């Protein structure tokens, strides 16, 4: 087992002292945070939960701030400057994009006229 020494405020030390037995667990949990902010998932889930029409699904685009973040990540990736955290974030955006493409493809039959 490894011992780590960290300088923290007296207030935080007092709080941690009360949870001494759980510190390793809390540190492990903090390192397993989702790659994207919860607001990103909420925005997409709220859209899907709103019972959108096939046309609304086809027209769906991520919020502008998410599009800007994605552009930044793609530019940094092209330059080879992504951190491990940013790689995980970009991977998660790609998984979400794949899911949305699948959802849009499922709506396609409802948007095209039958012959």
Unreliable runs, pLDDT <50, ≥5 residues?
none
Class by alpha and beta content: mainly alpha
Strand content: under 5%
Please summarize the sheet with the most strands.
none
Integer average pLDDT: 87
> How helix-rich are the residues, as a percent range?
55-70%
- The coarse silhouette is elongated
Tally of helical runs: 6
Number of strands: 0
User: How far do the termini sit from each other?
Assistant: 69 Å
Q: What is the radius of gyration computed over CA atoms, rounded to a whole number of angstroms?
A: 21 Å
The SSE string, one letter per element, is HHHHHH
Give the arrangement of secondary structure elements:
Elements: H1 10-18, H2 23-31, H3 38-49, H4 54-59, H5 64-78, H6 84-111
Helix pairs in contact: 5-6
Any overview of this molecule?
With 115 residues, this protein is an all-alpha fold. The chain has a domain at 38-111. Helix content is 69%, strand content 0%. The protein has 6 helices and no strands. α5 (64-78) packs across α6 (84-111).
Annotation keywords:
mainly alpha; 0% strand; 6 helices; 115 residues
What's this model, at a glance?
With 115 residues, this protein is an all-alpha fold.
């Amino acid at each position: 087992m490894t011992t780590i020494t960290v300088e923290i405020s007296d207030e935080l030390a007092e709080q941690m002292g009360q949870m001494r037995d759980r510190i390793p667990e809390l540190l492990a949990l903090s390192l397993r945070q989702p790659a994207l902010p919860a607001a990103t998932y909420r925005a997409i889930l709220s859209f899907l939960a709103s019972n959108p029409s096939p046309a609304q699904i086809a027209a769906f685009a991520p919020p502008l701030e998410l599009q800007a973040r994605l552009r930044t990540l793609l530019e940094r990736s092209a330059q080879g400057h992504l951190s491990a955290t940013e790689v995980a974030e970009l991977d998660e955006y790609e998984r979400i994009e794949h899911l949305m493409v699948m959802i849009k493809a499922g709506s396609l039959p409802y948007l095209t006229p039958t012959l």
